[in-house]
Amino acid sequence: MAALLAGCTAPQEKSEQEWEWYENKEWGYKIKYPADWRASDNEGKDRGIFGASPGGSEPLRKDKPNPQLQFIVFTTFSNQSTYEMAKGYLENEKHNPILYHNFECKEFTNITLDGAPATKITVTFNSPYLLSVGGKDSEGILWIKQFQVYAKKGRMCYELLYTNDSPDADNPYGLYEEYLGIANQMTNSFRLI
Questions:
Q1: For residue 30, which of 10, 23, 41, 156 sits 20 to 30 Å off, Cα-Cα?
Q2: Facing residues of 121 across strands?
Q3: Neighbouring-strand partners of residue 38
Q4: Which domains are assigned to the chain?
Q5: Residue spans of beta strands (DSSP E) within the chain
Q6: Where are the alpha helices (DSSP H) in 100-173?
Q7: Closest CA to 187 of 31, 43, 44
Q8: What span, in angstroms and rounded, lies between the C-alpha atoms of 4 and 9?
Q9: DSSP label at 134?
């Protein structure tokens, strides 16, 4: 058994010096992310979006489906509570059978994030996609697992989304589980400024 495990390496929790801060003063938040991840934002445009993904994770392409892993922060204004925002998401998605098959809520929890009220949900579902191979379109299924944390300060709402889209039915949530510890560290580093 030890021989089998010797060649396996999984992402470990990252030490302090391997992290960088992203800060968005206009939208009022900052968050740490692994220094070796690709990070981008929408340059102060609408919604104050920030995203990060492991360096080896490629975007999903029609001609070559790859597992996709992302951590995204969205911002918006709302009078709803974090509970109402999470509940609204669940209601909208589970009643959209064209895009969301086998939609299941695995977790619905009220938490705090940097001292602010927050709600965390974890969901799984399948979604169809088209794959172009040799000039022909064929259908496939993406296996998706994600957690979302809704936080609020005044009317400003923050949605932290950690998601894995995978075409691999044999190991549909492999990347999600592999990087979950890092995603949790990112979530715990989130600060309202």
A1: 10
A2: 108, 148
A3: 53
A4: 30-38+46-55+64-192 (3.40.1000.10)
A5: 19-24, 29-34, 37-41, 50-54, 68-77, 101-113, 116-133, 136-153, 156-166, 191-192
A6: none
A7: 31
A8: 11
A9: T
